[in-house]
Amino acid sequence: MSTRIALTAVSVITTIMLATVTPHATSAPSSAGERVVDRFLHPEGPILTTYQAHRVLEASTMGGRMQARVEALTSVDHQGHFHYTVLRESGSSLIREHVLLKALETEGRSHEPEEQGRAALTPDNYAFTAGSVVADGLVAIGLRPHKPHKMLLNGIVLVQPETGEIARLDGSLSDNPSWWTRHVDISRRYGRIAGVSVPLEMSSHADIRVAGDSDFRMTYSYSMVNGVAVRAE
């Protein structure tokens, strides 16, 4: 029972992590803080449209007693369709099937129009507040959902002040997915490759009743970004 609860919770959390995107804002900025937020919601430069990336997905639950790992080649084509091929997998078959492979399947569905926007970083979902400069000259923008929801976060995004380019997102779910989930922390890290801002790493930590700690981590290594070949790291 506790294993099934933990797997269900981690699966829901990966869905939330993969659904978080950054579309455009609609209001005009006035103050300095609002201008930083506007740059974040209207980032400069090209957006990520197509790519190929090697990914490593890892998850554990039951306080680390159950673990699994999947390596996959992933891509998005010019029609916006997501594809993946599993290269290697190891560890718990339950975690591989119900968490790691399901995360890739969920990402494929997240590219469909009807699935976009539910957890998006937009004024429809969030109030944004630009705060102080933090490490490396980044500016923290606070995220506060208009109302608590299991797909939305309380947290911050760290952005480049002059361009609004996102460097990191850290937060916790504003409403837990179920009674079994006490608390969920989520982190996403971004970088610039071939002149394009891309996700580099996603991770989560959840405190599950009965099952204990559950963790998920996914890293990207790109070989192509927007048609430009890049050296895989």
Task: Summarize the structure in words.
It is a single chain. It contains 3 helices and 11 strands. The protein is 20% helix and 45% strand. It is globular. Helix 1 runs parallel beside helix 3 (93-110). It is of the alpha+beta class. The longest helix has 18 residues, at 2-19. Strands 1, 2, 3, 4, 5, 6, 7, 8, 9, 10 and 11 form an 11-stranded antiparallel beta sheet that branches. Strand 10 (212-225) and strand 11 form a beta hairpin.
Give a short summary of the structure:
The chain has 233 residues and is an alpha+beta fold.
pLDDT < 50 runs, ≥5 residues: none
Helix-strand sequence? HHEEEHEEEEEEEE
Give me the number of helical elements: 3
Overall pLDDT metric: 83
Largest sheet properties: 11 strands, antiparallel
User: How much of the sequence is in beta strands?
Assistant: 35-45%
Number of strands: 11
Class of secondary structure makeup: alpha+beta
Question: What is the molecular shape?
Answer: globular
Portion of residues within helices: 10-25%
Rg, Cα atoms, Å: 18 Å
